[in-house]
Design a protein that fits this description.
Shape: globular
CATH topology: Alpha-Beta Plaits
Radius of gyration: 19 Å
Number of helices: 10
CATH class: Alpha Beta
Bound molecules: protoporphyrin IX containing FE
Oligomer: single chain
Number of domains: 1
Structural class: alpha+beta
Number of strands: 12
Largest sheet: 10 strands, mixed
Helix content: 25-40%
Order of helices and strands: EHEHEHEHEHEHHEEHEEHEEH
CATH architecture: 2-Layer Sandwich
Amino acid sequence: MEPQDLNMTTTVTGHQLFLFVTLGEGQPDGELAEAIDLLGRGLENVHEVDGPPSEETFARGRFQLLRAEAGFTTEQQIIHTAVTESDGLIRLECASLDPIKAYETSFRDLLSAAGGSVETLAGVMRPRSYTSHAMSEFAYAHAMPPGPGEKFPLAAVTPMNKTDEWWQMDFLHRESFFLPRYDENEKMVVKGHALASAMGVPSINRRLVHAPEGYGLQGNYDFVGYFEFAEADAPVFREVMAGLRDTEQNPEWKYVLEGPEWWGRRVSSAAEFLGTS
Ligand code: HEM
């Protein structure tokens, strides 16, 4: 379904690609590491950056290398082994698609020559559709800004779809799931998305992309979430996910089908990414 048919914004503010990487048999060599570092030369390495991107670097393109934290990744309803069993991830973002698409194409060539493979999840960044000024203040104004890999070494990726039933709902009905619900005596009976996850606002940096071609389609997740946080805040992230998945507190999740919850560790160089350093 198209965003305009859902009362959702049609504006695109940026592009992201998630390249899930499976390495080939045998030990990757220093030459491959050098070639990957070279690919990133024109882009900004997000690993070193404190705060949001400048307009110039976002226009140029940015990347973050991550090694899989395999023990933490979990399968959810949608089985996707190319993601679950990947060795690492390169997250790319840019104001326009071309620079990061060029990176993806060259990276794929490098990897397949080395006997590996790449699974790409793509998404577009959009302004928020359901958020009032007051919700902005509650959920975003005090949200933790992005920080360097040293400070926030862990990251989680949460691809997901919403069901056909969700996309058939009127937008006011859909919007109501983000807020608490109250009974006839104004007693809160359900927390809703924003309150169920509120404890993550000060300590989890969050980004979200939407399916590029419209929602409810085959071949692309409706949403891909990306979260960065400090080692000490990993339990907070787990609690936030548990809160969202608790359909008594957050009935929205009755309409969610999740891909794998993928965990990784941010690294600064291709040698660390490939494990050759
Ligand atoms: C940490 C605290 C969080 C808060 C306060 C929060 C709040 C919100 C709000 C207010 C929206 C509506 C955005 C709009 O206006 O379009 C939203 C959307 C969304 N959030 Fe969260 N969220 C949090 C964490 C998470 C987490 C951990 C996930 C994990 C998967 C997640 C997944 C989503 C998705 C997929 C949407 C888009 C839903 C749709 O448009 O149907 N959120 N969130």
